[in-house]
Amino acid sequence: MTAQKKTGPDATDVRPAPVISVIGTGYLGATHAAAMAEMGFETIGVDVDPSKLAALSAGEVPFYEPGLPELITKHVASGKLRFTADLAAAVAEADVHFVCVGTPQKAGSHAANLTYVENATRGVAENLTHPGLIVGKSTVPVGTAARLRGIVREFTPSGIDAELIWNPEFLREGKAVDDTLHPDRLVWGGASAAADAVIREVYAAPIAEGTPVITTDLATAELVKVSANAFLATKISFINAISEMCAITGADVSTLADALGHDARIGRKFLNAGLGFGGGCLPKDIRALMYRANEIGANRVVGLMQQVDEINMGQRERVIDMTIEALGGSVLNRRVAVVGAAFKPLTDDVRDSPALNVAAALHLRGAQVTLWDPEAMETARRSFPTLTYSASMEGAIEDADVVLVLTEWDEIVEASPAALAAIVGRRFVIDARNCLPVTDWVKAGWTVRSLGRPTPVTGAPVSVAAGTYDAVATAR
Ligand SMILES: NC(=O)c1ccc[n+]([C@@H]2O[C@H](COP(=O)([O-])OP(=O)(O)OC[C@H]3O[C@@H](n4cnc5c(N)ncnc54)[C@H](O)[C@@H]3O)[C@@H](O)[C@H]2O)c1
Predict the structure, then answer these.
(1) Pocket test for ligand 1, best of 91, 101, 144 (most atoms within 8 A of CB)
(2) What is the model's pTM?
(3) Which of 140, 169, 253, 256 could pair with 144 in a Cys bridge, judged by C-beta atoms 3.0 to 4.6 Å apart?
(4) Quick check: is 100 catalytic?
């Protein structure tokens, strides 16, 4: 592409700043669009979902993300941020086009469904009316961007200069606004000198803050993102595998993780043993990596990711088994309180949520499951309308035969075990996130079972023997 005609938003140069289009306004795109506006750029968010667009245009965010409604409201009001379904009009107005559409797992396969990315890229290319920089942000299998360049070449009107680069996104749901405004690194691949200048202009604010920039080729940029997620998933499955040994031997996986975490080469983050990972990214990303690795003959990656996935899914089985055991061998018609439905705290995202998965599995086995989550009630209800939902944690726990803590929300971690003990049917909690202050719960008369963390013996009468997974409780 030719060098863009413009400079930064605050420059005194006569050339205006680039206008930004963001294609796809889900978790990634809505946050990115708001952040672009906050960085001073006129930004147009494009989506194919009219209800999402209507909500965003009214300053409402159709999902829970702390700080995002405020940012969107601010910039819709300032006029810097608009949302539209009219891709052609947005592309005609904008200079830099961020592709932020979904790359979900294909039905019946481990492969990523790249249809949305292909359609969005093609849509941008064929609607270009002046030189444009297309910036892929979605998470894609290595080799996708090179293929998309073919689409750009084929569909860009002749005589118009277009370039596609890849700039993967590392934001975390729940911290998406801060992660986007102040990223820990910026990576882009495949940029010519002119494209590099444009993308540096777009990211001038975080670069000025000292954010490290790594520029590379397309394949490396694509692989950085999937490798990051694969590494995080591996770390979680590693500690979950170790938690099984802790459970058998009576060792404490939380203390073990704390001790490991002091080693700067290891670090404490992503070493929380428990129900495992879920959400719209890690599970589908490791499967897409597995699939792509298999396609290109990188067999060690296939084997490694297969193990990581199996260990992760096995944690859900462990919690289901613990629940059956806690209820004496059958959950049929027993009252099971599930606290937490989101795949992690600070989000209402229930895509591949381990919590919801366990709740649904117990429901299918005949348990009377009542579920509560501080933010994910609506998303959970849409996915599993047949479960019973309670408007409060207390309502879910009332008269329950067993309580399952499946998402480590502060509301749950900080709840009074004594108050909950007074309303529950049977004081038995399965702390599937190893997040509860166990001693406090035991003092309040609860029997606590965890994944790989022994618990002090409770005074409450419990008819069920300690299982194979959770270590026999001993006073510690
Ligand atoms: N959610 C995260 O935390 C996160 C973090 C980093 C990267 N990613 C990656 O970002 C991508 C998007 O993820 P998400 O969680 O935002 O997904 P999402 O499902 O929340 O959003 C995708 C959006 O794209 C829209 N869309 C689909 N086709 C379109 C088209 N042709 N034109 C315009 N809009 C279109 C959909 O309507 C939807 O609103 C994925 O590749 C994901 O792996 C996500």
Answers:
(1) 101
(2) 0.92
(3) 140
(4) no
